[in-house]
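User: My advisor asked me to double-check a structure prediction for Microtubule-associated protein RP/EB family member 1C before group meeting. I don't want to rely on an old file, so could you generate it fresh from this sequence?
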Amino acid sequence: MATKIGMMDAAYFVGRSEILAWINSTLQLNLSKVEEACSGAVHCQLLDAVHPGMVPMHKVNFDAKSEYEMIQNYKVLQDVFNKLKITKHIEVSKLVKGRPLDNLEFMQWLKRYCDSVNGGLVSHSYNPIERREGSKGGKEVGKKGPPAQTSAKGTAAAPKAQSHHGRRHESSSSVNSNSSSTLNVKAARPPPPAPAYEEQITELKLSVDSLEKERDYYFAKLRDVELFCQSPGLEGLPVIAAIQQILYAADNDGSAVAEARAMMSLNCQEENEEAGSLSPIPEVLSSEEKMVNPDSQKRKSIRNLDVEAAGINNLSPRQRFPDATDVHCSGSPLMTY
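Assistant: Sure, here is a fresh prediction for Microtubule-associated protein RP/EB family member 1C from the sequence you gave:
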């Protein structure tokens, strides 16, 4: 489900224009910015479109202006999430501020979820205008046009009033009337629109918000490393000292990493020297063993003699003297008759 999508999912790469087109076509609205939906009422009706009858639209306030009124809409949205067993966390405190990036990310997730329900298809019998009529401010929200159109209508009404005013003073001279009409036309012209500048400003705001989030993320990671290095029992370790050397370095020229490596190599050399100083001990032991060896050899020889004597006693007389004939033949005086 879309409730467990990651930040690198394709849903978070959908552009603002596509999001706005989806909202306006689904709910028949005229939103020009994603952050105009920060009140939470649009989110409620988008869920009502994919889950008809699940959202109590009579509790939704499309005319919410204060944060308190917006929070009431998000409470309705959270209740619907609980009914549908959606585990998505709603960052209400950020959404009600109207920040473009936060509202864009949440709307991207909501579009991904709506697309996962019935393939993103809304029932043909669903009428968004009728569903909004039971909500506070719902009747007027669909009739409101974009701000640019409203300003254009206001500026178009100005030259009409000025033209009527000019007809009442037809007795003035032609030169004055021509000059005054020229001035009126110039004054009635609206300032040139600058949609490109507005788009650039919005993109810059999104970029700033993204950089702030990235900065906070990496700062939190560095803070976790710092707290870990300050744990009891780890402060004296050479590795911890090298990490702190990098963390607290004031220069960004890479010298901190080189110094940390030098500290680690020096520590390895000291450990090798200590290991070398302890190595003659086996030689001393071997010399001491050599000094003890003569006594052990004597004991071994005595044991061998005892074993041989015991073996001779167990033999018969014939076995003791197997070569008696040899003695007789040799002319021994013991064998004379």
